[in-house]
UniProtKB/TrEMBL annotation:
Entry annotated with the keyword Signal: yes
Residues annotated as domain SCP: 47-170
Protein name, per record: SCP domain-containing protein
Coiled coil: none
Domain of life from the UniProt record: Bacteria
Keyword Signal: yes
PANTHER family documented for this protein: SCP DOMAIN-CONTAINING PROTEIN (PTHR31157)
Pfam families, A to Z: CAP
Species annotation: Deinococcus aerophilus
Length: 176
C-alpha cells in the first residue's frame, strides 16, 4: 500500500514538473536576459533616437520639434517584449495583449512608473528595423508619438514568429 502511494505521488510529481517546464519554455522565448539587446533592437533604438534628435516632418502634423534621445530602459524593453511576443505568435497587430492588457498595464507590470506611457507596433514578413521605422514615419499617429518630446525613456523588442516579425517600442515620460 505504501509503495502504491509512493508511486502515485512520483507520477503526480513528474506531471507537475513536466507542466511547469513546458510553461516555462513557452514563456522563455518572449524574454531575454535583462539588459541584453539583439542587434536589431539596438539598431531600431539608435535610428529612432537619430530621427528624434534631427527632427522630422510627420504626415498630418508637419515639422516636429527636435526631441532628446530616449534613454534605454530594461523594464520598458520587457514590456515591449511581452507585446512583441503576443503579436508575433497571434498575428494580430494590436495594442491589446494577452488577457486584454494595455500598454500602460504591461509597462506597470514590468516596473515602469510614469505619467505618460505609449507604444508603437509594427509587424511584417521579411522586414528589418529600418522598414519598421519607415512605416512609422509614414503613419501620422505613429510619427507624432515616437517624436513626442515628453517621452524620455524607451525599450525596444523585435520578435520573429511564425506569422512575421513584430517590432514594438514602449515609450514613457520621466519615470516617477
Amino acid at each position: 500500500m505504501l509503495l502504491h502511494y509512493a508511486l502515485r505521488m512520483l507520477k503526480a510529481f513528474r506531471m507537475v514538473t513536466r507542466t511547469l517546464l513546458l510553461s516555462a519554455l513557452t514563456v522563455l522565448p518572449t524574454f531575454s536576459v535583462a539588459g541584453a539587446q539583439t542587434s536589431a533592437e539596438a539598431q531600431l533604438l539608435a535610428r529612432l533616437n537619430q530621427v528624434r534628435v534631427q527632427g522630422v516632418t510627420c504626415p498630418g502634423s508637419g515639422r516636429r520639434p527636435t526631441a532628446g534621445a530616449l534613454r534605454p530602459s530594461v523594464p520598458h524593453a520587457q514590456a515591449a517584449r511581452l507585446q512583441a511576443g503576443y503579436i508575433s505568435a497571434s498575428g494580430r497587430v494590436t495594442h491589446f495583449g494577452a488577457g486584454g492588457s494595455t500598454p500602460r498595464v504591461r509597462a506597470a507590470r514590468t516596473g515602469v512608473r510614469a505619467t505618460s506611457v505609449t507604444e508603437i507596433v509594427y509587424m511584417g514578413a521579411g522586414s528589418n528595423p529600418e522598414g519598421a521605422l519607415r512605416w512609422w514615419l509614414q503613419s501620422p499617429v505613429h510619427c507624432y508619438w515616437m517624436t513626442e518630446g515628453r517621452y524620455t525613456h524607451a525599450g525596444v523588442s523585435v520578435v520573429q514568429g511564425s506569422r512575421g516579425t513584430a517590432y514594438v517600442v514602449v515609450l514613457s515620460s520621466q519615470p516617477q
